[in-house]
Amino acid sequence: MFFLTTKIMQRTALFVIFGGLVTSLFTTFLPFWKTMNSDLNEVENWFSGLWHTCLYTEEVGIQCKAYESVMGLPVDLQISRMLMLVSICMGGLALLAIFPGLQGVEMCVGQPGLKRRLLILGGVLSWVSGLATLTPVSIVAYTTVVEFWDQGFPDAMPRWEYGEAMFSGWFGGLALIIGGTLVFVAVCMGDFDQRPPSVPNSPQLKHRTKNYLKTEVL
Fold this sequence. Notes:
alpha+beta
């Protein structure tokens, strides 16, 4: 496709990575990782995130309370906190590395090799950021499923279920990985554009080659 140039691919990758980073950032601080509704008291809805636990009632609205002790948190929440912060840092560094390497940006002018290395670094950091987002979301999703189907709890006891932030976390992680992949595609397209021109296969060149062979035989 003639309209899909290296410049457009680079900016598309940057846009996807930025969207994934913003989504992961919101997911980190949203209190909607898990939700719980009680059949005995339908007017109350509980929400749980990495930093807060919230209660929603029709009379008062939503009230959130931060966790009192970090050491008292479950292991999956502690790991999820750390990995989500790593994801945000790696995603931010990926954007900082990719932007100077873009075509048309007046940075690192006259240094195409440096621009190429910055793009590769940004792509790797974006992959790391995406994996650091998908891992905690998947861990919390797994523990939620295990606890939901635990036969040791009475059937009447309400159980945690998936919240909206779980799906936004998966979306953000996949966007970061896809954006990093697009960066490598842009690098390959740039290498293809900078390849040396091939020798034209003209009839005159063929005629000269034949004459050279005849002279060599004589």
